[in-house]
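Ops channel
N.P.: pipeline sanity check, posting one input/output pair.
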């Protein structure tokens, strides 16, 4: 009986760790820094005054 309880507890702990690891990976992948949407080159002044 004690070995069965140990096996069940081990399986429950392993499942909880797997779920936690999966959620951690998803959180890391979702935590991208915000990238500014500013162009490096603009052509707004092209053709004026030249």
């Amino acid at each position: 009986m004690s070995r069965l309880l140990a096996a069940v507890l081990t399986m429950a702990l392993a499942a909880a760790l797997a779920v936690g690891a999966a959620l951690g990976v998803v959180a890391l992948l979702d935590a991208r820094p915000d990238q500014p949407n500013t162009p490096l080159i603009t052509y707004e002044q092209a053709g004026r005054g030249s």
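N.P.: looks fine end to end. The chain has a mean pLDDT of 85.
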